[in-house]
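Reviewer 2 asked us to include a model.

Predict the structure of this chain.
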Amino acid sequence: MKIAGVILAGGLARRMGGGDKALLQVGGQSLLARVIARLAPQVDEIVLNANGDPARFAEFDLPVVADTVEGFAGPLAGVLAGMRWAAPRGYTHVASAAGDTPFFPEDLVAALVRALETEGQPIAMAATQDPQRGLTEHPTFGLWPVDLADNLEEALTVGHMRKVIVWTSRHGCARAVFDEGDRYPFFNVNTPEDILEAERILKEQA
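Predicted model (structure tokens):
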């Protein structure tokens, strides 16, 4: 198994008023820089998925790939773009991470690999267990085999598929379950208020 990381940074950021949410600063560092720092030790190489002018990400010195399907088709389109980039480079899988989620587990990819191998499924997805809410899936954090790229493209273009869990259920998906605890593993920034909360979490974890 050879794994590339794809950071999904191509969202429309409507609740932030538009723009590149991943470039917002938390604790003096952009969300994207924090995500890259977490993901880089876990994979062999990283590619950014973002639409528009790639030059705005030049400071990160990473390849940038746009969605290969039209219409802002959501995270599955970003996963597909990552697959298309990774396959000719010899990668068997891509591990996806959201560009607005700065505290995800440092053992994310290892846990996804274990879940995939233990449950014998082609895809693995992160989840958290909460005493009140039960199992919560985090579909932007997954491990995806690149040999499903053609199937995913057909689902997006012909089937107009948008919901990650609907597509993964067709193929079988293992869950890597993390204890939510007090680590806020999949807290993501969607609103200006979330920036303040992320600052608070950073201070708490310092």
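The beta strands are 3-8, 25-26, 29-30, 46-49, 64-65, 93-98, 123-130, 134-145, 173-179. The two ends are 35 Å apart (CA to CA). We have added this to the supplementary material.
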